[in-house]
Specification:
Aspartate Aminotransferase, domain 2, seven-stranded mixed β-sheet, pyridoxal phosphate binding, Aspartate Aminotransferase, domain 1, cytoplasm, 2 domains, 38% helix, four-stranded mixed β-sheet, alpha/beta, 428 residues, 15 helices, glutamate-1-semialdehyde 2,1-aminomutase activity, binds 4'-deoxy-4'-aminopyridoxal-5'-phosphate, globular, Aminotrans_3
Length: 428
């Protein structure tokens, strides 16, 4: 028994499933999750002292690598002044200005404490602003665990085979319409059916919770046009893609302007942070300027703001996104080449600092349906092979992978050499 095994058994007695968020339990791959003791740069270290090159990065925020000195120092400095005030601070103003500078479609922004809160609040705002009840989301996209969004959801819901959760009254769920990602026709049909009832479309601009599916050409523009035609708001959920796909998120990368944007993960530098923002006339509709209520005791927490600002400043340095994209390409292309060399069919997708790989003969995976047709047996074998080699990937075939600036030549080379060995074994 490893220390992780022991801790997992102990954890299951007091924590449901032994974890505080489902995908961590390794349901998608089997076996005990690794309990992590510390992390530094591109590496995480488990409770048994084993080091892993990490491609999860706390599910995205560790874009500079773990325990980055600039973030650590900013946090330690902020701690000296106290942990929480429940009153406005200059740090929050600086954060708002920074976010708006980086993502120009956001004219105003409000901070929250998680991605779930960001999407939940943005949807309430869209409903309040348009006086319409229905929302439209895409099958396989995950936007956190608010009631209206846990319908045909991705991520852990998909990994556990429960894309629509019990506990959500049918009366709530009926207002959530689901369309097919990368299929504009499916969206048009729903708008033709409910032309004056849909308040907003919410989408992941690169779907990262059903593996990694970039938008096909014209998809984002088409959604923008449909929203304009029917008076619905377009909410781009950049909780995963924000400051990862490019400096201005996926919206900057693809050149599309939403009405509202949700952010999370990266703007907290590893602290619990989310944000939503967008058109000023819409944002003015929330309390205290408007009637839509939204609040949070720890929103804009000074320690979280300090960590996030330090991270964003470092991300604004010259060449960061070019380097991140080049490393990501190298890993994704390297996985494919190594798999193919051993006769294992693989398809890959990557954008900016996120990537996905699929065990499939399909040349390009662009839809949820195609994701479900991939070889479900190969992923856990590859996963555990890589884990044994000291490479930590997301423990589910429905999650995207993330690179960080701390992944250097050595780590990339070692990862690809490990993949080569694992594929060689799988081919036997
Ligand atoms: N939106 C997207 C696109 C996400 O990927 C996630 C989390 N992975 C969320 C929302 C929810 O964020 P959180 O887990 O911080 O609530």
């Amino acid at each position: 028994m490893t220390r992780s095994d022991t801790l997992f058994e102990q954890a299951k007695k007091t924590i449901p499933g032994g974890v505080n968020s489902p995908v961590r339990a390794f349901n998608g791959v089997g076996g005990s999750p690794r309990f992590i003791e510390k992390a530094d740069g591109a590496y995480i270290y488990d409770a048994d002292g084993k080091a892993y090159i990490d491609y999860v990065g706390s599910w995205g925020p560790m874009i500079l690598g773990h325990n980055h000195p600039k973030i650590r120092e900013a946090v330690l400095k902020a701690v000296e002044n106290g942990l929480s005030f429940g009153a406005p601070t200059e740090l929050e103003v600086t954060m708002a200005e920074k976010v708006i500078e980086m993502v120009p479609s956001m004219e105003q922004v409000r901070m929250v404490s998680s991605g779930t809160e960001a999407t939940m609040s943005a949807i309430r705002l869209a409903r309040g602003f348009t006086s319409r009840d229905k929302i439209l989301k895409f099958e396989g996209c995950y936007h956190g665990h608010a009631d209206c969004l846990l319908v045909k959801a991705g991520s852990g819901a998909l990994t556990l085979g429960q894309p629509s959760s019990p506990g959500i009254p049918e009366d709530f769920a009926k207002h959530t319409l689901t369309a097919t990602y990368n299929n504009l026709e499916s969206v048009k049909e729903l708008f033709e059916q409910y032309p004056e009832e849909i308040s907003c479309i919410i989408l992941e601009p690169v779907a990262g919770n059903m593996n990694c599916i970039p938008p096909v050409e014209g998809f984002l523009e088409g959604l923008r046009a449909i929203c304009d035609q029917y008076g619905a708001l377009m909410i781009i959920d950049e909780v995963m893609t924000g400051f990862r796909v490019s400096k201005s998120g996926a919206q900057g990368h693809y050149g599309v302007t939403p009405d509202l944007t949700t952010l999370g993960k990266v703007i907290g530098g590893g602290m619990p942070v989310g944000a939503f923002g967008g058109r000023k006339d819409v944002m003015q509709f929330i309390a205290p300027t408007g009637p839509v209520y939204q609040a949070g005791t720890l929103s804009g927490n000074p320690i979280a703001m300090s960590a996030g600002l330090a991270q964003m400043d470092a991300l604004c340095e010259e060449g960061v996104y070019e380097e991140l994209a080049a490393k990501t390409k190298r890993i994704a292309e390297g996985f494919k080449a190594a798999a193919n060399k051993h006769g294992i069919p693989m398809s890959i997708n990557y954008v900016g600092g996120m990537f996905g790989f699929f065990f499939t003969e399909q040349e390009k995976v662009t839809s949820f349906e195609q994701v479900t047709k991939c070889d479900a047996d190969k992923f856990p074998i590859f996963y555990h092979g890589m884990l044994d080699e000291g490479v930590y990937l997301a423990p589910s075939a429905y999650e995207a992978g993330f690179l960080s600036m701390a992944h250097g030549e050595k780590e990339l080379e070692e990862t690809l050499a490990a993949a080569e060995r694992v594929f060689a074994k799988m081919a036997k």
